[in-house]
Specification:
With 189 residues, the chain is of the alpha/beta class. It is 31% helix and 19% strand. The protein is built from 7 helices and 6 strands, in the order βααβαβαββαβαα. Strands 2-1-3-4-5-6 form a 6-stranded parallel beta sheet, with helices on both faces. The longest helix has 13 residues. The chain is globular. The two termini are 17 Å apart.
Length: 189
C-alpha cells in the first residue's frame, strides 16, 4: 500500500510553546498535502516530533519509525525535516523508497545555532535507493537553504531540482497560501 510520511521543519521555541501558532505538523502546506494524498488513496502521516525546537536525532528517528517505510513509501520533508531524510537515508542504505521530495532542505552546513543534528556524511548512493528524488528550492530563500541545495546538487547530481520564483521558504506567509499543487503533482506523477 502506498503511504507518505510528511516531516515538518524546525520551529522556534516561541512557536512550539505558543497557542498563537499551530503545531509544526499542522503548519503551512502540511495538512493540505496530507488531505490531498488521502483523497488520492495514499495513507499520509505527519508525525509531530517532541521538542522539535531543540532537535534530537533519536526523537526524530523514533517518530518516523512508527510508520511503515517500504518500497511504496513517499518521504516528504520541509527544511530541517528534508535534511532529516537525507541523513536518515544515508544511515539506512538498506531502505528503498518510492519517492523523496525535499522542500527547502536545510543541512546546517554553517553550523548555525550550534545544532549537531546534521553531523553526518551524505551517502551519494541514496539516489540509487529511490525511484525519484526531487529537491524544491525558491530563488529567494535564505542563504543557508541555498547553500544546502548547492551541496546536494554536488553530492546527488542525478536528483531532480525544481526552482520556484518568490516562494521564500515555502511557508504560508511567503507563498500566500497553504495549498501547494506543484508538490502534490510531483508526488503523484
Amino acid at each position: 500500500m502506498k503511504n507518505a510520511i510528511i516531516l515538518h521543519g524546525l520551529p522556534s521555541e516561541k512557536e512550539y510553546y505558543s497557542d498563537d501558532y499551530p503545531s509544526s505538523s499542522n503548519s503551512h502546506w502540511l495538512p493540505w498535502l496530507q488531505k490531498q494524498l488521502m483523497i488520492h488513496d495514499i495513507k499520509a502521516d505527519t508525525p509531530e516530533v517532541p521538542f522539535a525546537y531543540n532537535p534530537q536525532w533519536a526523537l526524530f528517528v523514533k517518530e518516523v519509525e512508527r510508520f511503515d517505510i517500504t518500497s511504496e513509501t513517499i518521504l516528504v520533508g520541509h527544511s530541517m525535516g528534508a535534511g532529516f531524510w537525507v541523513r536518515y537515508l544515508s544511515e539506512h542504505p538498506e531502505i528503498f523508497v518510492d519517492k523523496v521530495v525535499l522542500v527547502a532542505p536545510w543541512l546546517n552546513l554553517g553550523h548555525e545555532d550550534d545544532i549537531t543534528f546534521f553531523d553526518f556524511e551524505i551517502d551519494p548512493t541514496i539516489i540509487e535507493h529511490v525511484n525519484e528524488l526531487i529537491v524544491f528550492i525558491s530563488d529567494d530563500d535564505h542563504k543557508e537553504i541555498q547553500d544546502s541545495v548547492a551541496f546536494l546538487r554536488e553530492k546527488l547530481p542525478t536528483a531532480t531540482f525544481r526552482t520556484f520564483h518568490n516562494y521564500g521558504h515555502f511557508i504560508s506567509q511567503s507563498m500566500k497560501t497553504d495549498a501547494f499543487p506543484e508538490l502534490l503533482e510531483s508526488i503523484l506523477y
